[in-house]
Amino acid sequence: VLNPAFLATASAAAVAHALWYTLFPIYLRSSAMELWLVGVISSLTLTLFFVLALPAGVAADAIPTRTALALASAGQLSSLLLVPLTSHPLPLLASVAAYTFFMALRGQVSLRLLAASGSRRSWGTTYSAYLLLVGASGVAGTYLSGPLVERRGFSAVYLASAALFLLTLPLSRFVENVPGSSGRRATGSARAL
């Protein structure tokens, strides 16, 4: 059985991500950024997720799950708050890269928690239920982003996303605490790849 705090954290983080990222290219374009740069910065969140999966996985293996989820929440929150504060591409790229690392960390920790939560016979079902919840939460965030921007502007999307990430910080305290391996063992696992 999946921990309700973990499910609430995963759901809130999925809504928070979809809220701001759905209209991110439009936000960038509205700040008079050139189209090629809008494409590069927007696609980095997707591309960097795969590139940063390995270091995020090493970090997720090395530290306990509660700490890692709290770190992911704090990292996503702080880097997201920097996005609307800058209009120069380099700090924006740095904010998106940091956000994406913490998003990848959340994903890796979630896999650890899913593996620890079920019996070997039900891992497929447990993972499917998790994906359904996170996917539905992301869809809800996507649907909410347009009306929120229309009524309140882009700043409302960033503030709502930040509020949801802030909510996940105390929730992470109630998630199962799967201990991390030593840093040396996690680094050795990375070298084995």
Polypeptide structure, described:
With 193 residues, the chain is an all-alpha fold. Helix content is 81%, strand content 0%. It contains 9 helices and no strands.
Q: Biggest sheet, open or closed, and with what strands and sense?
A: none
What percentage of the residues does DSSP assign to strands (E)?
Answer: under 5%
- Ranges with pLDDT <50 over ≥5 residues? none
Record field, number of beta strands: 0
Shape: globular
What can be said about this structure in brief?
This protein is mostly helical.
Name its key features:
single chain; 193 residues; mainly alpha; globular
Fold topology:
Layout: H1 4-21, H2 24-30, H3 35-51, H4 53-62, H5 65-82, H6 89-117, H7 123-152, H8 154-171, H9 183-192
Helix pairs in contact: 1-7, 1-8, 2-3, 3-6, 4-6, 4-9, 5-6, 5-8, 6-7, 7-8
